[in-house]
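Minutes, project check-in
Item: structure for the 437-residue chain
Input as provided by the requester:
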Amino acid sequence: MNPLRLGGIPLGAALGAALLAASAAAPPATAAPAPATAPAGRQAPTAEEQRLSGPVPQEILRRGGFADTAPDFAAALARTRTLPQAQRLATAEGRRLWRRAVDRAQGRGPGPERAGDLSRDDDRPLYWARLGMTRALREWKPAFRLSGPQRAELTGRVERSSRGQDSIELPAGEQVRRVLITGFDPFQLDADPRRSNPSGAAALALDGTTIDTPAGPARIEAAVFPVRWADFADGTVERTLLPHFRPGPRRVDLFTTISQGRPGRFDVERTNGAWRGGYPDNANVSRTETVPVPPGVPTVHPQPQWTSTSLPYAAITAAATGPFPVHDNTEVTEIPAGATEPVDRPDGPTPGSTARAGGGGDYLSNEIAYRATLLRDAVRLNVPGGHLHTPVLQFGRGNADPATGTVTDPEFVRNRLAIVAQVRSITGVAVAAGRTS
């Protein structure tokens, strides 16, 4: 998830063409949702939740077997009579949704008659089902007094638990390597609501699995994050990662944040920058500023302009991990010390420069990498960690136009499966190389 820069143009601004051939020339499938209002005692739906009523999200929910999630949750909410009951319900049902999505991605659970006919590796049913739950919370009129902050806290419970953020369970002991990976929601959905994010699909496919590596078995735990500036400023990344970065028998041995990047290639991002470039997020909000560090979490003083990967990038890029080439990306954009205008640097930042884009751009993929590695440095966590960009997930030929295309096709599924398989292979290489470095 970028925007990176291609030929001087932010990739986020041109990703329609990069993601889907010819879609940049096509009109958006749906316009940006208009502001909504809510009846007294309820909250207006968010921009993301407003998209949920469209035909594409509804088809994905139906064909993914998740159409019952929001109605069942709304019915359970209607039966609650106290705030503690609602809190327990929000957490439990969020976790149930996460586990259901993981089980579906890993081939467990009901058959096609209940799980739907979408490929099991599809990350999109989880995304839209979660929005159905949060919208149900905003529309709910409880039988007891509920303040705005209390409703927001309930929504936060659903968000965290349905993303796997509060159910990361790394094992203790020296016989297994502990790996934490993260993915993202789909994004740029006003241009094409069919979009999937292979980093989120990888998180679902790998969560709770154990892979064999030359260094021994590695247990992988995963979580996904929203494409929203505000959540990052509020500390969702640090809150999720910090318990697993602190010393103890279950501390991570390797971590990598993952997002969707360029067409046709993986990138191991060497350097991350402390800058938000302003591209709109899934809430249609822009932020252009230095990455804000949330109060109350360990950090480095003064705040650095740059952080660096500690992933074994040489070993990863040299290994045969799958059909896509893997690059060691050293590019950044900086304002050199004493200068006022940004310049692109192919070999990383120069001393004293101000960040304007890391190797992963200036969007939330760069930001999660910056936050994770800054936290690593703050708590002196000496393990391999950094960011991996996957190839762009593309629809098949003839299915690029969102106005006429279908929500899935065989090439789309093959591409996603290949990307997920290569993420698994790259993770194994990183574990083995990190153990011996």
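Outcome recorded: The CA atoms of residues 393 and 416 lie 6 Å apart.
No further action items on this chain.
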